[in-house]
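Worked problem 6 (solution included).
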Amino acid sequence: MNNKMKKVIITLLLMSIGWMTQLFAQTHAYAFVHDESGWGLITLSGERIEGFSYKLLFSPGVIYTISYSDSKSMVFNPDEGLFKTRIREKYGYVNIENETQVPPVYEELTSFENGYAITYADLKYGLVDRKGQEAFPPSRGEILGFSEGKVLKKKGGKYGYLGLTGEIEIPFQYRDAGLFSDGMACVKDEGMYGYILPDGSWKIEPAFYNAQPFIEGQAIVEVTSGWGVIDRTGKFVLQPSYHHIDRQENGVYRIENGGMWGLADTTGKLIVIPKYVNMRNFSEGVAVIKNGNARGVISEDGSLLFIEQYDDMKDCSEGFLLARKNDLWYYLTTDGKPLNNQGYVAAYPFSEGMAKVRVGDLFGYIDTTGNLIIPAVFANCYSFKCGVCRARKDEGWGYIDKSGEYVIPPKFKNANDFFILQ
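Solution. The predicted structure is:
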């Protein structure tokens, strides 16, 4: 097979993956919208899902202070595949067909984690699975979470662990405790933290003022001389001499000493000595740094990709950074090259190859070539999700495609982004 034929086959495979992704999105994408009948769910074709009609809709992670009546309300988190409802001040879960999965009988009900949600009712805590089955009878004492077969519970000011049948497996004896992670749990005993195994025996004796969970065989801990990183034997792989350490999603550690930031790897080797005034979290393999009044970007190996005089800089999104100079925002590549040399009063991160920008008093969209693909004609709009975005010219909200045309008419009082229901 020659190279030309190989390229053709690869191109066809990539195209088929794109078609499959689009088909999946069209089949499983939904959005919450609000009209005269209340909050409901629609598909990408604009068809409303029967049965979903709620007077109030709450987004996850937001605290509300509203007087409830008999109205139905909903808190949703699409990652869970279920929708949390509140009916007459009691919480439950329904599925996409609006069928009850967890009955609305709980005064408090958390998101699902590791297959279970924490319940609270009548001063008792319990666990419930996605089918509404309680793991064991609820009882007094706060449940804090479940992981690796152990339920973390606080009772009488002490922490201990239950099994999934509700029996006590590790007694309530610790002043503080965390969930099991990587086969160990961090607990506080007599003023110091250490790590225990699932049978309750010590793996690493208490010797730390503060400690974090193990992740991929390493944990961040604090001793008298500062913060460091240990392995599963308790040996320091990154010496405890820092004021702050946090683990990045790529496995490297951000380290801070004396107000200056650097990088270290999982072997304890310094990638960048602490020398930057600020260093943001890594995003798409790069991190924004600040040195004096200049800002730039470093890679995971510590290489400085560029540094220039900018007043502010935001994290990388789809290969582009946002940098502010003299009250205007510019799009840059990760090597510091301007996308289009155009400054905007307001600009937003790329999403699905499109970025919202403000031109005058209205909003439009540029593509990754820097061209204004959708003219600035919208009073308000948001990022593209599932190939469309919610937008408003006048009073009504609708959804536009990447040509700027409404594919779902602007007839809603309010609208949320489309999401994929797993």
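Discussion: The chain is about 5% helix and 50% strand.
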